[in-house]
Amino acid sequence: MIELSGVTKVFNPGRAGEVTAVAAADLTVAAGEFVSLIGPSGCGKSTLLRLIADLVPPSSGTVTVAGKPAARARRDRDYGMVFQKAGLFDWRTVRRNVELPLELRGTGRSERHARAAEMLELVGLSEFASHYPAQLSGGMQQRVSIARALADAPPLLLMDEPFGALDEMTRERLQGELLRICAATGTTVVFVTHSIDEAVFLSGRVAVMSARPGRITDVIDVDLGERTEAVRQAPEYFGYVTAVRQALRGPAAAVPEQAGPAESAPAVRAEK
Ligand SMILES: Nc1ncnc2c1ncn2[C@@H]1O[C@H](COP(=O)(O)OP(=O)(O)OP(=O)(O)O)[C@@H](O)[C@H]1O
C-alpha cells in the first residue's frame, strides 16, 4: 500500500533555517496493516505522514501509495486524513460534514445521504446527524472526523495524533472503535502518536524514529492477537511497551537490569 524508499525532506535548503526533518527513510506498509510512527517531539513524524499524503514533496527518494506516485494517489483521493483537531466546518451539520468528500467527488445526493448515515452508524453518532459540531464533545467531533475521512472508502487512513487532545478514557474507547472500524472496512492505517501505550495497543508494527534528523531506527512487530480491553493488562503487552521504550531511548537503554517485564519483550528489528 505504501512504499517509502530513501525519503529525505529538507526544509529551507541552503537558506537560514535549513532543517532536515526526515533522513533516508525506508518503510513498506502492506494493505490492511496498522502501522504507528513514534518518536521524540520534532523528529519528523508529521512530516513523514505529510510526505505520504503528498502535502509536501520529498527532497530525495520516492513515495509510492497504492502502487502509484504519491501525487497521483492524492489526486485519486486514495487516502483520508485525520488530525489532532477534528477540523469540522462549524456551519455544516454533522451529516453534511461527513458528506463533504463525497460532494467533492460529485456523488449524487441520495448516495451521499446513505453513505453518511452508514458512516455515522459506524462511529455511533447516528442520533447526532443533524447537530452542529459545537454541540458535540471533543471525542464525538473526532469520531465525526474519522467518519468523514472514511466516507468515500479510501483504502488508506493517515492519522496525525488524532486522539492526542482527548482524556484517557475517551482515548481508550476511540482506540477500540478505530480498530473495530478498520477491521470492518479493511482500511490500512498509518498513525502518528506520542504515546507508547497507544502505539502498542493499536499497531501490528511500530516504526520508531530517532531525534532530528528523523530516521526510522527500528520497526517492532507487535503480535498481540485480537485487541480486547484485557490486552491492556497482559504481560505480553507490557513487554512490547518496554521494547518500544527501549528502542526510543536507543541501544544504550537495552540493559537487562532495566528491562523488568521486558524479559518477555520481543526482539527489535532494525530497518535502516
Ligand atoms: N513547513 C515547514 N517549514 C520548515 N520547517 C518545518 C516545516 N514543517 C516541519 N518543519 C520542521 O521539521 C521538523 C520536524 O517537524 P514535524 O512536525 O514533522 O515533527 P513531529 O515529530 O511531528 O513533531 P511533534 O511530535 O512535536 O508534533 C521540525 O524541526 C520542524 O520545525
TrEMBL record:
Pfam families linked: ABC_tran (PF00005)
Single GO molecular function: ATP binding
Signal sequence coordinates: none
Domain ABC transporter intervals: 2-236
Xref: SUPFAM superfamilies: P-loop containing nucleoside triphosphate hydrolases
Sorted UniProt keywords: ATP-binding, Nucleotide-binding, Transport
Region (Disordered): 253-272
InterPro entries xrefs: AAA+_ATPase, ABC_transporter-like_ATP-bd, ABC_transporter-like_CS, ABC_transporter_ATP-bind, P-loop_NTPase
Keyword Transport: yes
Protein name: ABC transporter ATP-binding protein
Source organism (scientific name): Actinocorallia longicatena
